[in-house]
Fold:
Amino acid sequence: MKRQKELDYVEKYRYLGLTLSENIDYKVSVNELSAAASRSLGSLTSKFLHMGNMDFEIYTKIYDNTVIPVMDYASGIWGIKRYDSLERLQYRVIRTFLGISKCAPIPAVLGDMGWLPVYIHTQCNAIRLWCRLMKMPDNRLCRKVFCWDIETSTRYKNTWFNNIKTVLNTCNLTHLINYSGENISTNYVLETVKSKCVDDFKDRWSNEVRTMPKLRTYKTFKSEFSTEPYVKRHLSRVQRSALARIRSGTFPLEIEQGRYRNIPPNLRICKLCNSGSIEDETHFLIYCDRYTDARNRLLRELPSIHIDELPPNEAITVLLNANTKLVANFILECSNIRREFI
Structure:
């Protein structure tokens, strides 16, 4: 007779690398994965800082191959929902590369880098698992558990199958639930789900850009969600940071610093000139007299640009889309001048 052993009662248990809580709360599982991915991110960050800089393609490739595999481990099971811990981790990755602070608005952080949220990737992994289970033979254990979950879903709302149905319904694919496995095209389902998720995200992103006060300048030149050219250029970390901060509204100007001193927006006046204008990004880059010499030197190197002949919104759009290295150096030079007088 085998010796019997009393099992301990625990609140959570790690099985095959995934931490399961007593109530099957996947938030606990995801937080454990997020902590592990954060350690992987530390390795990426140390390499990035040790090298002094890194190209966008290399940075993205290392992130995709070292951090993402840890973040989305077993996401076919838990990946239907959005988890803030994973999204915040990706924000850290982007901020490190762009050289911006935690105060930078998320729409600008994602918009310039052109990276989609983590939940879109994990949702596609969950849908991929559903397609695989639909095609699996009935004698497989995973298939039996899947059928049990389908039956349980008729009595309980918060089940894996019901969450899958919600996603499929959102993408107008509910009819596939009644199909036999061999009639389901995994590639078609994944492309449809991802396309719908991306379109919905871009709509929300565009609305946030339009309505967020801090993105007063950003919304004048950023209309499409895509990786910005300056992010892909071979810039130094300081140059990239200067462009990212001026674009995201976090550059140390009166319009931004006045927020922390409770100064009304209309009283955040430029202290370097006598125009009485609000010191925002447009005034700083195009109109402030204190930087006239630096601005003229920049425009001589960009003879095709005539910002004096353009309305403010068009002028700043043209300037920020010009030679990014020259513009970044101009921003840094103006910043040094500003620090000398303030």
In short: The chain has a mean pLDDT of 91.
